[in-house]
Amino acid sequence: MGNSKTIAENRKARYNYFITEDFEAGIMLVGTEVKSLRAGGANISESYASFENDGLYLVNAHIAEYDYGNRFNHDPSRPRKLLMHKRELARLHAQVQRAGKTLVPLTLYFNDKGKVKVKLGLAAGKKQHDKRATEKTRDWDREKQRLLKNNG
């Protein structure tokens, strides 16, 4: 991602889902939303991407209202259209339909050119025992690091 600036991160996504592929998408925003993002007011932890009749939308993402936006302010949790190439959209739509996968936003960030981008993950849900296994390996890795640090 170069020297991009992360705005919001969905940290639970990799815990709740198996992420098979990552995709980058642009996002259609209004001016007060961009200003609010520059101030750091975003939450994508409960959001997902879904196909509506005319494209792919980021649903349930919360971008706080801009403090100085007065009457031109935006709706904080409106669905926002995601911008991708038609071929990519068709491929993703087929995988979501056929394989029953979900599109989960992983990070929301400014790229090198100052544009807001969303990193989407093509995800399959984890069962409870998978989540326990993930926790177990994470705890073991942490313990290994601790042991190496103290003994090595």
UniProtKB/TrEMBL annotation:
Keyword annotations of the record: Cytoplasm, RNA-binding
Pfam families in the cross-refs: SmpB
Glycoprotein listed as a keyword: no
InterPro entries: SmpB, SsrA-bd_prot, SsrA-bd_prot_CS
Main location: cytoplasm
Alphabetical list of SUPFAM superfamilies matching this protein: Small protein B (SmpB) (SSF74982)
Subcellular location: Cytoplasm
Ranges for region Disordered: 126-152
Amino acid composition bias (Basic and acidic residues), ranges on this chain: 131-146
Function per UniProt: Required for rescue of stalled ribosomes mediated by trans-translation. Binds to transfer-messenger RNA (tmRNA), required for stable association of tmRNA with ribosomes. tmRNA and SmpB together mimic tRNA shape, replacing the anticodon stem-loop with SmpB. tmRNA is encoded by the ssrA gene; the 2 termini fold to resemble tRNA(Ala) and it encodes a 'tag peptide', a short internal open reading frame. During trans-translation Ala-aminoacylated tmRNA acts like a tRNA, entering the A-site of stalled ribosomes, displacing the stalled mRNA.
Family from the record: Belongs to the SmpB family.
Protein name: SsrA-binding protein
Organism: Sneathiella chinensis
Gene designation per UniProt: smpB
